[in-house]
Write a structure and sequence with these properties.
binds nicotinamide-adenine-dinucleotide, 2 domains, globular, 7-stranded mixed β-sheet, Aldehyde Dehydrogenase, Chain A, domain 1, 24 strands
Length: 501
Amino acid sequence: MLDRPNSKAAWLARAAALKPEGRAFIDGRYVAAASGETFARVSPIDGRVIAEIASGDAADIDRAVAAARRTFEAGIWRDADAATKKKVLLRFSELVREHTDEIALLETLDVGKPIANSLAVDVPFCANCLQYYAEFADKIFDEIAPAAGPDELALVRKEPLGVIGAIVPWNYPLIIAAWKIGPALLAGNSVVLKPAEQSSLASLLLGRLAVEAGLPEGVLNVVPGLGEKAGKALALHGDVDMVSFTGSTEVGKLMLTYAGQSNMKRVSLECGGKSPHVVAADADLSKAAEAIAWGIYYNQGETCHAGSRVIAHESIRAELVAAIAEVQRTQIPLGHPFEASSQLSAVIEKGHMERVLGYIDLGVKEGAKIALGGKRALAETGGFYIEPTILDEARNDMRIAQEEIFGPVVVVIPYKDEAEAIRLANDTIYGLGAAVWTNDMRAAHRMSRAIKAGTVWVNTFDRSSLTTPFGGFKQSGFGRDRSPHAIDKYMDYKTVWIDYR
Ligand code: NAD
């Protein structure tokens, strides 16, 4: 194994030597798209092309679904015993760990996040998730219902669904892929993974590592391609039993349409968010400011549950805004992703950078005040960087407070009393995450009950674990990733009633 690079120059040299695999991984091997078409992946860190990616379409999805169906019906993975499933999935997670540097580099080149984060968070969280679900293999039991007579047996068996289409976004490609692959494979399904067109590289490597770990060829397939081509073909496919989707609310709604237009496949949706922090007058402001700054600037704000709306009591708003800016200045520097000190780097692509900057301009037009940042940064690199930004003195009915900006931009809105804070917190189409900051535990309980969100943090933010379910209310979607509950999504109950008289 090569030593881990210890400087920006060493990472750049490693990146220059890299030849990323951009072909689809179908039935255990890398193959070009049936059409022969590719698209160039431009790295957001410097605007250079890093790989040509196979542009999968309906023909490639057909091949991948056929491989998944064949392996599922043959039972080569579905019917493997628990010890085998556990061994293979554990080995898969170990291989991810053994390839940490290579995978982290692919992830950083593809999506622009600091290499330190890819190394410390994205790759280990992916491996940990695969390990977590592997360990369930010999701990899931079926049931015997107390319904039958003495000479009968009513079995309630949990069975895998069949072929799972996993469609994932670009912000945490490895982690979200693992949230889906882990429980889906553990349950005995075969899978076709469609990474976002901006982030195919690490996922394509995962396909190979799964086979190296002993997963039979064809059980996990990875088809890169554009959403409207490969993604749509997968979601419309008549031989796919479920689509497990993470992405925008707009495309999530299309998944429901596609299911209705095709085979009524099941759909689980993890979609967008506009998560509020409610900061009361009695809150510990320095603790809140630290969590708010990390929660919006980590991963360039490209986090579905990023706390992108701060609903601050009018008496402490100005002090809080100054404290958030200070945390950013002292703890979360913006820089090139290969600089060890960088905590915030490039956003995913040029078009997205322009979209986020457009929202900042819109916010100013709507009447908000820029209290931090607001501009493009590091343009000389050729990459797509945005200054960490605070839009202060906003109103909740502004578009910047209602629409998902998905960049390092937090919107601050004042409130007068608790009832107004709850109303503002809930006044959005989303319901993914929320935080309440107060030293009054009665108020904390009242607000955490009243706010509609899949996770409500109290005096903390973004604490997460594989053991807790994650997902949204309202138009943030339905179905949960993580925790034992995620396994249920990929299985269903079958009653087998036996008369043995
Ligand atoms: P997106 O909806 O544009 O794309 C997500 C995936 O869907 C990609 O693989 C894309 O190729 C595919 N896709 C796009 N159009 C499609 C179509 N017509 N048919 C089928 N597939 C299609 O989202 P994105 O820009 O990649 O990711 C950002 C979004 O994801 C944000 O809204 C963010 O909040 C959300 N997200 C949610 C969670 C969660 O757990 N709730 C987690 C991460 C990201």
